Amino acid sequence: MPTSAALDVVAKNLNLKFFEVPTGWKFFGNLMDAGLCSVCGEESFGTGSDHIREKDGIWAVLAWLSILAHKNKENLGGEKLVSVEDIVRQHWTTYGRHYYTRYDYENVDAGAAKELMAYLVKLQSSLPEVNEIVKGTRSDVSKVVNADEFEYKDPVDGSISKHQGIRYLFEDGSRLVFRLSGTGSEGATIRLYIEQYEKDPSKTGRDSQDALAPLVEVALKLSKMQEFTGRTAPTVIT
């Protein structure tokens, strides 16, 4: 679920069945064993297929090489071969670009982290209040049209996984996702996923952090990150 929604856009456009699952490869395994899924991936770049129940870097490299071979099959004698960058830019032209980043706040006081997450859940009950905060922070950010706590019902065994991430979904296809992990004695990690969807071809070549800056500002204001955690910056940005 925290992975970029670029896959969702492509799958819907091509009328392909796709599944949005919680973090954890066991969910992929269930789908693969049932013959419902053949390709899977996660936001930290792990990718695999149904030949193995785990991420496979070699497979990912071979998959990209096969894509490049297919794109260049009529052009092997040409002066310039189609590159990965060419393919990605064509994707942006066709489907739009999903600017994406993840902020990790590590070793946060567990109590403060839980309070932050509880606050975000409570805030979801009033979208007018949410949008008042959004517009008061950045007028150039789209409005929030839905907010929930992600829940997944496994289509194979019927099991239900609750509390899998707090989501704020924007009218233009952008998203904010908050997840909490590792609430042990050494503190918790808050993961903030920020995704800005851009359909305008003239704006798909921007630097990611520049394009995401308004939504980052909204995310930090909406969550009261500094107030709850005392942190002025994330531990890691990816």
Automatic annotation (TrEMBL):
<dbReference type="GO" id="GO:0004614">
    <property type="term" value="F:phosphoglucomutase activity"/>
</dbReference>
<dbReference type="Pfam" id="PF24947">
    <property type="entry name" value="PGM1_C_vert_fung"/>
</dbReference>
<dbReference type="InterPro" id="IPR016055">
    <property type="entry name" value="A-D-PHexomutase_a/b/a-I/II/III"/>
</dbReference>
<keyword id="KW-0479">Metal-binding</keyword>
<keyword id="KW-0413">Isomerase</keyword>
<dbReference type="InterPro" id="IPR005846">
    <property type="entry name" value="A-D-PHexomutase_a/b/a-III"/>
</dbReference>
<feature type="domain" description="Alpha-D-phosphohexomutase alpha/beta/alpha">
    <location>
        <begin position="1"/>
        <end position="73"/>
    </location>
</feature>
<dbReference type="GO" id="GO:0005829">
    <property type="term" value="C:cytosol"/>
</dbReference>
<dbReference type="Pfam" id="PF02880">
    <property type="entry name" value="PGM_PMM_III"/>
</dbReference>
<protein>
    <recommendedName>
        <fullName>Alpha-D-phosphohexomutase alpha/beta/alpha domain-containing protein</fullName>
    </recommendedName>
</protein>
<dbReference type="GO" id="GO:0046872">
    <property type="term" value="F:metal ion binding"/>
</dbReference>
<dbReference type="InterPro" id="IPR036900">
    <property type="entry name" value="A-D-PHexomutase_C_sf"/>
</dbReference>
<keyword id="KW-0460">Magnesium</keyword>
<dbReference type="GO" id="GO:0005975">
    <property type="term" value="P:carbohydrate metabolic process"/>
</dbReference>
<dbReference type="InterPro" id="IPR045244">
    <property type="entry name" value="PGM"/>
</dbReference>
